[in-house]
């Protein structure tokens, strides 16, 4: 069975074989590694691309530079993302830069982490969590 994923480098869609784990998997468009699962900086258009085209859960951290708990959680979110290559896809969105999107998604306080699956938000949490807590939360939706 194949799944579609969005390349974190070129943002094009690659169709790859679905596996339990991956040792190597490269983008069919740009050739860069799809295992590079550090959160990418997103915006409304990039989020739309991911939730429309990726068959993996899309995990989005809404944050802002002035938000202490957001800054504190950032390395934890990155660690969680790096632990789950090609299990979920991770984005960060600056809520100050994307206020229209933030209000559309009813982001009232940050950090807020949302999970999208099959084009729809299915859950969220608000407030900083540790990397292991984030991983446990994401695993429910894999
Ligand atoms: Zn690519």
From TrEMBL:
Disulfide bond keyword on record: yes
Top-level taxon in the UniProt lineage: Bacteria
Domain Thioredoxin: 28-142
PROSITE patterns (alphabetical): THIOREDOXIN_2
Pfam families membership: Thioredoxin
InterPro entries: Thioredoxin (IPR005746), Thioredoxin-like_sf (IPR036249), Thioredoxin_domain (IPR013766)
Keywords for this protein: Disulfide bond, Electron transport, Redox-active center, Transport
PANTHER family given in the database record: GEO12009P1
Family per record: Belongs to the thioredoxin family.
NCBIfam families: PRK10996.1, thioredoxin
Name of the protein: Thioredoxin
The species this protein was found in: Sulfurovum xiamenensis
Gene responsible for this protein: trxC
């Amino acid at each position: 069975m194949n799944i579609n994923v969005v390349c974190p480098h070129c943002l094009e869609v690659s169709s790859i074989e679905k596996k339990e784990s991956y040792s190597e998997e490269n983008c069919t468009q740009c050739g860069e590694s799809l295992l590079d699962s550090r959160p990418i900086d997103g915006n409304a258009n990039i989020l739309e691309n991911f939730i429309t085209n990726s068959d993996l859960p899309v995990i989005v951290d809404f944050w802002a530079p002035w938000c202490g708990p957001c800054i504190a959680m950032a390395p934890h979110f990155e660690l969680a993302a790096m632990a789950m290559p090609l299990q979920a896809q991770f984005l960060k969105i600056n809520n100050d830069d994307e206020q229209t999107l933030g209000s559309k998604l009813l982001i009232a306080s940050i950090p807020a982490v949302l999970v999208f699956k099959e084009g729809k938000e299915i859950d969220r949490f608000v407030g900083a969590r540790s990397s292991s807590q984030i991983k446990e939360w994401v695993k429910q939706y894999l």
